[in-house]
Amino acid sequence: MFKYLLPIIFPSWRFFSSIGPSPRIEVGFVADKNSEPQEWLPFRALPQSINFPLGLQRLFHNPLWNERLYINTCAEHLFEGHSEFREREIGQRLVVAVLNREIVADDEFHYLVFRIRALESETGQVRDEVVFISKPFALVDIGGAQ
Amino acid sequence: MTLELAVRLAEIILGFAIFQQSLEFMRGQQLEKTLGIVRAVLAVLLMLGLQPLLVESALLVTAVILIRRFQGPYNGGSDTMTLLVLLCLWLSHVAPTRYWQEIALGYLAVQLTLSYFQSGWVKVVNPDWRSGSALQKVFALSAYPVSENARLWAVRPQLMFFISWAVIGFELIFPLALFNQTLLIVALGIAALFHLANACLFGLNRFFWIWPAAFPVIVWFQGRLMNAF
User: Fold this and answer.
1) What is the number of structural domains in chain B?
2) What ipTM was predicted for this assembly?
3) Range of B120's domain?
4) Are A16 and B123 in contact (CB under 8 A)?
5) For B27, what's the count of Cα atoms within 13 Å in the CB-facing half-sphere?
6) Could you say which residues from 102 to 141 on chain A have a Cβ atom under 8 Å away from some Cβ of chain B?
7) Is A121 helix (H, G, I), strand (E, B) or coil?
8) CB atoms within 10 A of CB A82
9) What pLDDT does B70 receive?
10) Residues with Cβ within 8 Å of residue A81, at least 6 apart in sequence
């Protein structure tokens, strides 16, 4: 517990000290655990623009965006090494997004798989590689659906 | 500003920030929903100034549960600042003497100052930040820009260079504002606009609400420093 609390009590304010690889989460669906997804869908793709009323609303209340930032944090932890906890955190939140119909999956699919792409700029070129593919997560309610 | 007034104002703003965070948690998973409801109620009590020591103690307990739940902060720096403000205000209530009260609140003021200065320092020593290319990467590739149109800022290198140096300059000279109260008020106004810009461009809305919770304390601290010297 102290390893989590000490950096908060004695914080280091190194915002954007270096710009590392940036994660992109993509979701795929399979009918059974051993299949591979035929298609990968971006998770919470960015809108083209955000108008003033929506921007103002998001200033006060933006749970989906903050969850997206948390998922990205989990993904960045997975860049550094496998973590059952981080993988489960992302997977369960994606399952909830499907159950809430934020992501639409056909009825034939019973499992969700996600993958993480890492985007990085090196000498003007963008490197884009898949760095993680998750285990399958069953599309069943785990208590977070609205 | 008196120490008592600074604490009261900080508690009102902190209460609002925690209330805002709690409403967002109510959209999460079961434990987050439950804690969100509990923290929202506590946040209202904090804003009203009812039993601040008890309320802040309960908020600290729930904050520790959340940190344990997420194995660290849920929302990075904003959670760190939330807990830091809460802890220092709580310490100011349990402090046995005025001296220790001032130490607790002084620590918060120093951390607020460092949150700008250290951020500026790590940028100014980085050549990518000095050239504007680091900010260009933030807009072009990072997960932060809120829309595709916001990403397009990356294709304007002169703008990136200008913004980078504006941010670095402001963050580095922020501590100088402690020498004059009017200057400090102006600096805090600029800081609030900076957090607003981060909220609009990068969706960092929680930072916009929680950083100002420490502003009354630094205003008190500046006055205390001037009295001491």
Assistant:
1) 1
2) 0.91
3) 3-228
4) yes
5) 15
6) 119-121, 126
7) strand
8) 9
9) 93
10) none
Rounded to an integer, what distance in angstroms lies between the CA atom of residue A17 and that of residue B121? 9
Closest CA to B133 of B112, B114, B154: B154
Smallest Cβ distance to A22: which of B80, B143, B203? B143
Q: How far apart are CA A110 and CA A137, in angstroms?
A: 8
Residue B49 CB neighbour total at 10 angstroms: 13
Cα separation, B119 vs B170, whole angstroms: 10
- Tokens 């609030």 label which residue? B192
- For residues A85-96, give the mean pLDDT: 95
CB A20 within 8 A of CB A119: no
- Cβ of A62 within 8 Å of Cβ of B203? The answer is yes
Integer angstrom CA distances of residue B197 from A64, B7, B146, B150: 19, 27, 12, 12
In tens digits, chain B (229 residues) has pLDDT values of 999 999 999 999 999 999 999 999 998 788 899 999 999 999 999 999 999 999 999 999 999 999 999 999 999 899 999 999 999 999 999 999 999 999 999 999 999 999 999 999 999 999 999 999 999 999 999 999 999 999 999 999 999 999 999 999 999 999 999 999 999 999 999 999 999 999 999 999 999 999 999 999 999 999 999 988 8
Question: Cβ(A9)–Cβ(B84) under 8 Å?
Answer: yes
DSSP states along B144-196: --SSHHHHGGGG-HHHHHHHHHHHHHHHHHGGGGGG-HHHHHHHHHHHHHHHH
Report the residue of B16, B24, B90 to disrupt the A interface, i.e. the one with the largest count of A CBs within 10 Å: B24
Query: How is residue A46 written in tokens?
Result: 């960015």
Partners of residue A72 in chain B, C-beta under 8 Å = 143
Tokens of A40: 């990968």
**Which of A7, A46, A59 lies closest to B148 in CB terms?**
A46
Q: Is A119 strand, coil or helix?
A: strand
Cβ atoms of A114 and A25 closer than 8 Å: yes
Q: Please classify residue A119 by burial: count the beta carbons closer than 10 Å to its beta carbon, then call 0-12 exposed, 13-18 middle and 19+ buried.
A: middle
Q: Is the dihedral of CA B200, B204, B209, B210 positive or negative?
A: negative
**Domains in chain A: boundaries:** 21-43+55-138
